[in-house]
Every structure is written in structure tokens, then in C-alpha cells.
Amino acid sequence: MGSIADNIGGVTRRIQKATKAANRPPESVRLLAVSKRKPPEDIRAAAAAGQLSFGENYVQEALEKMAALADLRNLEWHFIGPIQSNKTRDIAAHFDWVHSVDRLKIARRLSDQRPESKPPLNICLQVNVDNEDTKAGATLTSIPQLAEDVIQLPGLRLRGLMAIPDPDQSEASLRESFRALATALNQLREANPDAEGLDTLSMGMSDDMETAIEEGATIVRVGTALFGARDS
């Protein structure tokens, strides 16, 4: 692995190449640096290289990093891990985005606990796009009703959908999973024409971002290619 700055440059070039191949503008895809299990110093180095959006999976770990990096006021924090009910207050208070909402109970708690001094919390609904028994996420068939309910919550702003497809499937099957998520988002837009900001497909990681971008990803979540392998 090179330096974090070099790695950011390399991933950015991969995104630019993939968007060009898909006839999309480069700015249509955002890089979310997955910084879980990485120290604040790594985030600081990434920020110095121009990367300002970071994804965290564990609330307490993220809060400690936020405190350590409080002098960097332009960072954008995304929660991308499973959400426990007893963690929603901290998530609602400290994050800018949440990618992993998969049930209405959690959405209601996040809305109710979002401080009035902050703008609505940006939300993606997590979809278990491959119907894996061990993976979190709502089913594709339940997404329309869940989205309709979430749109009504005043503390939230529904932005789109997120998925983590099975990485062990063939490339053709992986592409089908990404395509199914993109289709679901298009259907949400058609069903909710008055909803503002249904513009986000959070899909694709270090090993499959090119395929995800070809199928419409607007946020790719990349950790290993930026920071190297993590402990867990």
C-alpha cells in the first residue's frame, strides 16, 4: 500500500475511469472513506488529501474519533453499520448520514431524537438485495411501504437505498443485485414524485466499485483500497 494520499488518488482515478466508461460525469459518484477500525491519524491524513466524507460502523468508536478530530469542522460523518435501538440517540445527534435503516422503529427513533438545531438526517434504506439469511436489510418488496413511512418523518430526509451484495457471487449475479437496487430506487422516485432528494445509491466497495458505478452507484464505500486491511 502507498500513502493514504496516494491511495485516495488511485481510487479517484478508478472512479473517473468507471464513470467515463458508463458515460456519466465524474462528479456523479462520491467516495465515502470507510474508516472503521482505523485511527484518527489516518482520517486526518485523508482529510489533508481532500477526502472529507467518512463511514463508521461502531458508534462509540466513531464518537471518540469525532472528539479527536473536532478541529476539522468540515468532515461529514456517515453511519453505515447495524443500528441498535440504544444507539439511535447518539447516531441522530452526531452523524450527517445513516445508510443502514432497515425498519420503521429505528427510523422513528432517529427522527424523534434528531436535534432541532440540526438539519434533517440524511437516510438510506438498507436492502437485503440477495435475501441472505445472515444479512441485515429490508426486503425489496417491503421497501415501497417503508420508504413511504420514512418520508413522513420530520427529522429525516430519505435520500435513497444502500446494499451490500454477496461478494462471493459471480460478477453477472453481482451486477444483477446492483441493477435490482437501481430499479428499486427508480420505482421509489416514480411512486413519490413530491419527495425531495431521492438521489442516492450507496453500493460498491473496494473490489466491485466499477461494476456498481456502471449500474448507477452515486456513493461507493471504500476502506481497504484507501487505508489497507483492517484488524476486523
Describe the structure.
- The structure is a single chain.
- With 232 residues, this protein is of the alpha/beta class.
- It has a single domain, classed as Alanine racemase (TIM Barrel, Alpha-Beta Barrel).
- Helix content is 41%, strand content 17%.
- It is built from 9 helices and 8 strands.
- An 8-stranded parallel beta sheet has the order 7-6-5-4-3-2-1-8.
- Strand 4, helix 5 and strand 5 form a beta-alpha-beta unit.
- Helix 4 packs across helix 5.
- The longest helix has 21 residues.
- 41% of the residues are buried.
CATH class: Alpha Beta
The count of β-strands is 8
From the helix content, strand content and strand pairing, which structural class follows? alpha/beta
Biggest sheet, spatial arrangement of strands: 7-6-5-4-3-2-1-8
CATH architecture: Alpha-Beta Barrel
Kindly report the CATH topology.
Answer: TIM Barrel
Average pLDDT: 95
Find the CATH superfamily. Answer: Alanine racemase
Instruction: Determine the number of helices (DSSP H or I, runs of at least 4 residues).
Output: 9
Shape verdict: globular
As residue ranges, the low-confidence spans are: none
Cofactor: pyridoxal 5'-phosphate
Family: Belongs to the pyridoxal phosphate-binding protein YggS/PROSC family.
Keywords: Pyridoxal phosphate
Function: Pyridoxal 5'-phosphate (PLP)-binding protein, which is involved in PLP homeostasis.
